[in-house]
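Supplementary notes for students who missed Thursday's class. We covered one full example, reproduced here. Read the sequence, then the structure, then the short commentary at the end.
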Amino acid sequence: MYYLRPQLEQMGIRQIDNESEREEDAVMQNYNKASYEFSKKNNALGSVKLFIATLPGKYFDANKKLRTRINNVTGLPMIVNYDEAFALILKNLSDVETYHTATGQDEATSLLGKCRMLSEEHPFFKMLYKRLSGDIDINLQTQLL
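Structure (token representation):
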């Protein structure tokens, strides 16, 4: 093994001796990643994650009325699954350009308009539309886009 060390060092391969060098290597690995290697879900701002993760779990009953999912064990309202919710958002809302629909603008290009359109078919978007239509901080509006 000792006779290989000079050849390995010459090629730039070295043994990591302490924890700080491992941390530096981890930082460099993230720095060297291309844009397509980062997860939009994992890199979303904390306020956006919290907003999505606290949406109540809803479903449509037989009469198309919005109902809250209740946990059978605790009897408490359930929240949406963050991974599923973020996947729905990426799939359906990735092409929106603005938050509000401007006069004469296609409704499908705004976040509120697209949520309203999708809310007729999907309970998640109905709940999202209700939350987005309420009193939301202007900073959160910008971060959601």
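Commentary. The two ends are 55 Å apart (CA to CA). Residues 46-144 form one domain. If anything here is unclear, bring it to office hours.
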